[in-house]
Amino acid sequence: ESGKTVDVNARPKGNQTITFEALSDRIYGDAPFQLTATASSGLAVSYSSSDPSVASVSGNELIIHKTGTVEITASQPGNDAYNAATAVVQSLVINPKPITVAAENKTKVYGEENPSLTYVYDGLVNGDTKTATEPAISTTATAASGVGVYPISVSGAADANYSISYA
């Protein structure tokens, strides 16, 4: 039939904004945590990391892999009703975890060679079993040392993911 018409009213897309609060510093070994940005449209926000080797994003969860600084970007691409939101970027600093390296006490019989000197770590995380550079360990005691107590010194450990002290 002719003479019929259809009115099509185009509705303009709405604008939206993202609210993404500053991220507090974290420590290597911290548990994964939820990112909580929101879009004024109510649409889901997605995230990305500037360096996934430092911290990666899976859904809304951020996973720390090593120390460093990354930029986390929150974005929302829009849909049929909303324009894309301007992305919001927050910086995240991941600091080294404090750990302690301690020499283990040893005993020996006068005149015998020193036993093997050993040390233990306190505070390693994420399945780490040692530091990248292992410490040196020494004592002033020798096979000829008289009866007494001698110091065992440990030093020189290094690892970017840890702040190391000695006990």
Automatic annotation (TrEMBL):
MBG domain ranges (all copies): 99-167
One of the Pfam families matching this protein, by short name: MBG_2
Superkingdom field: Bacteria
Gene3D superfamilies assigned to the protein according to its UniProt record, in alphabetical order: 3.30.160.710
Full protein name: CAZy families GH9 protein
Organism the protein comes from: uncultured Cytophaga sp
Organism lineage: Bacteria, Pseudomonadati, Bacteroidota, Cytophagia, Cytophagales
